[in-house]
Amino acid sequence: MDLQAFKVLLKKDTPDASLTGPLLALWKAGKGDWHGAHAVVQDDPGKDAAWVHAYLHREEGDLSNAGYWYQRAGRPVAKGSLEGEWEEIVRMLL
Predict the structure, then answer these.
(1) Helix axes 47-60, 63-73, angle to 10 degrees
(2) Can you give the pLDDT at residue 23?
(3) Looking at residue 72, which CATH number applies to its domain?
(4) String of b and e for 39-67 (b: at least 16 CB within 10 Å)?
(5) Residue closest to 65 by CA, chosen among 54, 76, 81, 77
(6) Which of 8, 13, 36, 57 could be stapled to 62 by a disulfide with Cβ–Cβ 3.0 to 4.6 Å?
(7) Residue 83: inside a domain
(8) Quick one: CA dihedral 42, 48, 51, 56, positive or negative?
(9) Residue 15: its pLDDT value, please?
(10) Residue 25: is it exposed, middle or buried by C-beta count within 10 angstroms (0-12/13-18/19+)?
């Protein structure tokens, strides 16, 4: 699967069964379900989940909390557009 195929999945009402963890959270975020996306990654200890968690708090506007999660993910704090970061994370996780 690539980014374009992932974006096609956003047209569905329910997530593809193959999506789990951080990719499921990104699907939910792409559908505008911030709370659902956050619930998926909130208790996941992995670095990929921490990156998605950081992105979500950046989207929310809670930059100090986002900074904490970028640090947990071992990633620099994102400075570009939210859409660009969402796409970057999807590409990296696929």
Answers:
(1) 170
(2) 98
(3) 1.25.40
(4) ebbeeeeeebbbbbbbbbbbbeeeeeebe
(5) 54
(6) 57
(7) yes
(8) negative
(9) 96
(10) buried
Residues of the domain holding 54:
19-93
Q: Report the helix count and the strand count for the chain, using DSSP H and E.
A: 6, 0
Tokens of 22: 């951080």
Q: What DSSP string runs through the chain?
A: --HHHHHHHTTSSS--TT--HHHHHHHHHHTT-HHHHHHHHTT--SHHHHHHHHHHHHHHT-HHHHHHHHHHHT-PPP-S-HHHHHHHHHHHH-
Categorize the per-residue pLDDT at 4 as very low, low, confident or very high, splitting at 50, 70 and 90: very high
Q: Please give the pLDDT value at position 56.
A: 98
Name the strand (E) or helix (H) holding 50.
helix 47-60
* Token duo for residue 36: 């659902």
Say which amino acid occupies 73. Answer: A
The reply to whether 46 falls in a domain is yes
